[in-house]
Structure formats: structure tokens, C-alpha cells
Amino acid sequence: MEFFGENFGTIISTFGAALAVGLAGIGSAQGISLTGRAAAGLVSEDPDKFGQALVLQLLPGTQGIYGLLVSFLILLNNGIVGGSPVSAAQGWVYFFASLPVGLVGLTSAISQGKTAVAGIALLGKRPEEQGKAITMAIMVETYAVFALLISMLIVLLGRID
Predict the structure, then answer these.
(1) CATH (residue range 7-157)
(2) pLDDT (tens digit per residue) in 36-78
(3) Rounded distance between C-alpha atoms, residue 137 and residue 57, angstroms
(4) Which residue pairs, CB below 8 angstroms and at least 24 apart, start in 135-139?
(5) Considering Cα of 119, then 67, then 69, then 146, what sign does the dihedral take?
(6) Domain boundaries in the chain?
(7) Rounded average pLDDT over 146-158
């Protein structure tokens, strides 16, 4: 029990790092899965559209990368990778820093996947409109980028000494 008390900040911040990568990763996996199923249907009808469909399928995967990035930043700052354990207060700062990228990544990746599915349907009827399909899916990404930025700012600027 003493170990837990002495290392509470590191433990809670590590849990936050796991949440960031886990939630964003779940969202990315779901978004990629949704899009992959639609892409497989399109490619079964027209194998030449594989490259266009693949671009749309890859887009929801970025939220998982964002979660991984924030997770790395937390682990580099919380004493797991090196240095001394962080205080409980600092651990909570890192924990809360993980929430924007984790929660927004979870929901935006799924929503982006759904938007990319619609884009794949557009490709099936009008393949020359790929740019519009990609733009529509990227608009959802905007909010994941905002969450990434705030999570990174909290980790990098939210130092409590």
C-alpha cells in the first residue's frame, strides 16, 4: 500500500496515458472497420477503385495516432520512462490531459468512418469526386486535431511544481 501512496501521481497519469491511446485506438479501429466494409463492397464491384477507397479508409486511423502521441508525452513526463515519480497533483493534470484526445478521438474516428463510408458510396457513382469525399471526411478530423492540441498543451504547459 505504501508503494501505491508514494507513486500515486505516476500511477494515475499512466492510467491517463492508457486511456488516451485506448479510447482513441478503439475509435480508430471502429472507423477503419466501418470504412473497410464499405470499401470491400466497392472494390468487389470495381477493383480499380481500391486506391481511392483505401485513402478514405485510412483517415479514421489518425485519431489512434493522436492518442498514442499524447500517451508518449505523458509517459516521458511522469517518471515511467525516466526521472522521478510525479506528485499526485501532477498525476491528475496528466490524467485530465488524456481525456480530450481520448474521448474526442473515440467519437470523431467513428463519425469520420461513417462520413468516409458515404464518401465511398460517392466514389461508386462518381469516382471523379474523390477530392470532395476526402474533404468531407477531413472536416470531422478538425475536432480531433483540436483535442490533440489541447491535450498536448496541458501536458507540456500544465507542470505543477
Answers:
(1) 1.20.120.610
(2) 999 999 999 999 999 999 999 999 999 999 999 999 999 999 9
(3) 10
(4) 137/56, 137/59, 137/60, 137/112, 138/59, 139/115
(5) positive
(6) 7-157
(7) 96
